[in-house]
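Exercise 7 asks you to align residues with tokens for two separate proteins.
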Amino acid sequence: MLLPAKSEVARQLRHYRAWERSMLASPTDVTVRTTFEDSGYTLCVLMGKRCAREAADAAERYLRTNLVTHAQEQPERFAPSGHKAPSGAA
């Protein structure tokens, strides 16, 4: 699966959260609600989810996975100095 740039995910998640706060502060404002829903839709498309809340959760998980995933993919790079990576690691 092709993954979006983390910088774009972070930007869209910030945008969604800002409009979420505005919508909660002014729930009867049609313009605020529409913009909030639009930002949720954008996040859904970006994260491949059908629900904005699920998309926001997925975005947060995706943004947290950077170092752990990278360390698992390249163990020799993260081995303590003076130690060799396990044989078989390239």
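Second protein for Exercise 7:
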Amino acid sequence: MDTLRSQFFIRPEVAFLNFGSFGACPRPVFEDYQRWQRELEEEPVQFITVNGPRYLRESREALAEYIRCNADDIVYVMNPSYAVNIIAKSLNLSPGDEILTTNLEYGACDKAWNYYCKKSGAKYVRQPVSLPVASQEQIIEEVKKGITKNTKMLFISHITSSTGMILPVKALCDWAKSQGLLTFVDGAHAPGQIPLDLGSLNADIYTGACHKWMMAPKGCSFLYVKREYQGLFDPLIISWGYDSPITSGSLFQDYHQVQGTRDFSAFLTVPKAIEFMRDYQWEKVSAECRAMVRNNAQRFFDLLNTKPICPVNEAFIAQMLSIRIQTPNPDKLKAHLFDEYQVEVPVIVHEDKVFLRYSIQGFNTQKDLDRLYDALVEVLSEGELLSSF
């Protein structure tokens, strides 16, 4: 994995253990991004109005093959939060309706659902998943307890942001469908980190980020909607794709994709990102990353005198691990780790808990985790972790 470091722009002096937040783009993919941007500036009219639809279609076809779905059932969006807003705004919720979710979801998505539920008089039900988690069956049974006669949709993360846990979304989607519910999976962290087969997942709606573990440039994500539900969801921006005399044959594509002047160059880099992963045998790289995550887990649990929040195995943990940490000032601790030790790692507040979450990508080495460990040893030895931090 040492050889991969040169393929990324990450500063060599930084132990970058926060890939989960915004990803990082490899040089060949970023160069492809700039190539598309140059073409846009060289002939904007041809790029946006003439060639753009074909470019986007070819990119969607590559992505669809990678995540195993039909290319006409996905549209590109800037980020998963944008996709959640598309769905929540158009869901036509009524007073008393309920959206069932867990207490482990991403904060921005919680905010979007709370906003639209408040406007409509609906309820956003954050069903508790108790930690530590002992099994996938525990999660499934706890989520099931949240359903009522008013539940309209199950919204659930594929991999949670704060805890880094893989949730049993296939089983939960199957159960939800048996109850007549729509299913919506927030897969921000899934594509590129774990295998994704939308054809068999049984989710009605799925959003994922290409700019995280697939390593595309920032602002490149997708929204998938099963064909039978696509007509339910309006775009956030009504533009030239609406009621157009020139159509692609898919209103879903026209409504959501044709939005006038915007730089969609990042979307066009997805084939290059997939090529990069293929060229560097990313299945092997990812397996090595997962092994490094798991092999280092116990020493961090021991150092911080805590227990794992879930089994540290392939079913629950991929390339991110969250560790409970006791600190009254998470932001100060995060800043201290970066300013004093050049370790970029998030310290995340989730409800009444604080997690230190490290992410491992192909450019990371054991030295990065050793630097984090040594930094925490120093902070603990100074007696600051439980006081000023």
